[in-house]
Amino acid sequence: MTRLDTPPSTLRAWLGLVVILGPCLLVAMDGSVLFLAMPAITDALTPTADQSLWILDGYGFAVGSLLIAFGGIGDRYGRLRLLMIGAAVFGLASAAAAFAPSAEILIGLRVLMGVAGATLLPSALAILSTLFADPRRRAQAIGIFAATFAAGFAVGPIVAGQLLTRFWWGSVLLINLPVLLVFLVFAPVLLREVRESGVGRVDVVSVLASAAGLLLTMYAVKHAAADGLSATGSVAGLAGLALLIWFVRRQFRITHPLIDFGLFRSPVFTIAIVTGFLPLAAWSATAYLTSAYLQSVLGLTVAHAALLAVPGAVVLTVAAVVTPAVVARIGQSAALIGAHFAIAAGLFLLLFAGDTGGAGWYIASTAVAGIGYGISFSVVADIAVAAVPSERAGSAAALAETGNELGNAFGIAVFGSLAALLFRLHGPDLAPTLGETLRLPALAPVALADARAAFVDGLHVVAVTAGLLHAALGLLAVRVLRRSAELGHPGGDDPGDVHQIVGGGDRHVVEGV
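Above: the chain's sequence. Below: its structure in token form.
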């Protein structure tokens, strides 16, 4: 039995938001929680260099490749139902991964966690959009959601650092269980089932094509960045691109597409989706590399390294929370532009971090870049949900979150591989990574100094490359969005303008509580 939605009470809406924030925090946190744990995992499971990368980014690959598919499935068959199933699987996979006996099994379980995580984000954000009838309160709630998502990425290494000083590496995954248990108990009470009405079944062919195309393309990019061009990687990449092109063309032909590509008529929406990708790529790569820098180059303990990450995490979270108020004053366009320039400035500060000292420059870098990261996360989420009628919110949210997760996975795969390549070219040529070099017996002081200097050089190149990309995107945003405003296109400085992209009502069906 279904009926039209009636707005929930204010108290119930905010309690529902609190419940939704749990899975959101975990999905984001599990994208970064293993950064500081990798030395302990390496000692326990002895993965190869390639397996180490897959342990880190296999999760992000799975989430990114399936978000679009699960966003559409949740819209049609029930977002709350999908949330409950995903939370249960995420918890079981986390518990099993914490006790993984080998690198191969850990990789497989991390991928399963990613599959479950892909069910959580779009449905959670879509349900959130139905809890608040007032647009301003909805914007505030989305800002809190975005801040929690951003904070999850930022605090992952911090939480891991505290746990690793007391427990074994698997503890960083077991912390998921109590949060998910609370969600599974209270979600059916505080949240309502919401699904899109008046549409056909999910186009299974589109689901398979989008997932396979993204996965093959990401695999090809990672393989090429880490090992160079090969027949296997090239074939995978071409097949993935072909599937994605076919998928896009199919969306224009079918009646009920997984993605409404008409959204990209808005320059603000388009720049926002790119903004969802690039900052996560820069953040994940530099967070991973600076975690190794603080421990393996500066010689800091895990706890000390985690403590140094706190200021940047606080700045990032606060920036995401206050962004809706900032956008109300300066507009989405200015916020998007400012985010890119702030991130670029923060990344360039890493150039002053050397192999003999640089903890202060690291803190300054994360604090300055954190302003841009927080703004970008919040603006992207708000634009995605505001751009569509609420019954399509899951698909739009999935598109925005796909950019985030693909950025997270590509950042480690591409920028991380670039740093590894530079280490192999300029290091002492004793082992493929800094961590493996430092574990060699009787390592000469000169070789140790060369290894650390080579790693820092790689970190600098990654920071400059990512910073230049952000500066270029910021300049492009200035040009494109200014032209859009002059022509009077949707997506100007008024956050509400994005609604004009799709038109239509605010129709959705909510099952009885």
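The beta strands are 2-4, 194-195, 509-511.
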